[in-house]
């Protein structure tokens, strides 16, 4: 059964639930959304939207008095249709080129050197911890 397209309001609430849950690992309630995000919606309206998202399987409620958490279906919808992917800017392109050169140019160094450089560049650009592993052949 194909899912219907979510409304803008439903997509906003689902996106907020997923982003908040990923950061806090705690169920997200309607009061938290109404208080911390400027959606112009009341707690009750947000609860109604959350109930609809739950009925369609995008979020679930771990227990009666808890907020909601994303389901696999909710994460999939978010990744496929809500999440925005930011391209890399010129400074980031220059960082990559400086460390890896242009395609087709031979690089010297061991596999470990290349992986270390890749981890450093990825961490620098993403501003996150990065781990790079070589495949087992």
Write the layout of secondary structure elements.
Blueprint (H helix, E strand, L loop, with lengths): L7 H17 L5 H7 L6 H13 L3 E2 L8 E2 L1 H11 L7 H11 L10 H16 L11
Antiparallel strand pairs: 1-2
What is the architecture of the largest domain at the second tier of CATH? Orthogonal Bundle
Instruction: Please give the number of β-strands.
Output: 2
State the distance separating the first and last CA atoms: 40 Å
Radius of gyration, taken over Cα atoms and rounded to an integer in Å: 21 Å
Q: Low-confidence runs (pLDDT<50, min 5 residues)? A: none
By secondary-structure content and strand pairing, the structural class works out as: mainly alpha
- At CATH level 3, the topology of the largest domain is Arc Repressor Mutant, subunit A
Provide the β-strand percentage band. under 5%
Helix content: 40-55%
Order of helices and strands: HHHEEHHH
Corresponding CATH superfamily of the largest domain = Winged helix-like DNA-binding domain superfamily/Winged helix DNA-binding domain
**Total of DSSP H or I helical runs spanning 4+ residues:** 6
Mean pLDDT: 85
In order across it, which strands form the biggest sheet? 1-2
Number of spatially distinct domains: 2
Largest sheet: 2 strands, antiparallel
Please explain how this structure is put together.
By secondary structure, the protein is mainly alpha-helical. The chain has 2 domains: 8-82, Arc Repressor Mutant, subunit A; 90-126. It has 6 helices and 2 strands. The protein has helices at residues 8-24, 30-36, 43-55, 72-82, 90-100, 111-126, and strands spanning 59-60, 69-70. The chain has a two-stranded antiparallel sheet with strand order 1-2. β1 and β2 form a beta hairpin. The longest helix is centred in the N-terminal third of the chain and has 17 residues, at 8-24. The mean pLDDT is 85.
